[in-house]
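Blackboard transcription, Thursday session:
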Amino acid sequence: SAVISQKPSRDICQRGTSLTIQCQVDSQVTMMFWYRQQPGQSLTLIATANQGSEATYESGFVIDKFPISRPNLTFSTLTVSNMSPEDSSIYLCSAGDEKLFFGSGTQLSVL
Amino acid sequence: KQEVTQIPAALSVPEGENLVLNCSFTDSAIYNLQWFRQDPGKGLTSLLLIQSSQREQTSGRLNASLDKSSGRSTLYIAASQPGDSATYLCAVKGSNYQLIWGAGTKLIIKP
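(Written on the board underneath:)
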C-alpha cells in the first residue's frame, strides 16, 4: 500500500490568486492523478501527472488554469490559478499503478 | 462508452444489519474494479480491489463480488456499525486503463 500526504488540507483564498497543492507519496509510483470533487458529486479527473513530461489533461481542463509538476516518482503539485468562486471544491491527489490510493484532500474555498 | 451506476444513492439501516451496496457497469471488458469509502470532506480510502479474473475479495466484514457477464459488483457489509457510515464509491478501470467512477451510495448506520 502507499501513504499519500497532501497539503494544505484546507484553504480560503481570494479571487484572482493562485494556490499550489502538494502531494507526497511514501514510495515510487508511475501513475499519479489529480481529481476535483464538487459538493455532493463524484470525482472528476483533472489530469494525469507524468514524471519527466507534461501532464495529460482531461477535457475541460487546461494547463494554464491547472499547471502540474511531477519532478520525480514520489511528488507532484497542482496549482489552481487565477481562482474564482467556481473553483471552490475538494482537490484530491491519488497514486497507484494497480490499486489506487488517495491523499486526504484539499478543501478549497474561493471568496 | 463505459457508464457506472450506483443504486441506491442513499441508504439508512439500523446498526447490526447486514447490507449490500450495488455497482453496475455497461461494458464488461474491464481491467479491475475498486471499492472506496469517503468520509465527509475527506479523501478516499481504498477498501477492496477485484481484478477482472477474480469473482470476489474479502477484508474483515467486507466482501466484494464481481460478475462481469451481468455487469455488476456488490459490496456486502456484515454486522454494520455506526463507524461504517460514509459514502461508498466504486470505480471501474477499463481495458484502456481509464477509470470510470460511480456517483456513490451514502450510507447511514443508525445506532
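Lecturer's comment: The longest strand of chain A covers residues 19-25.
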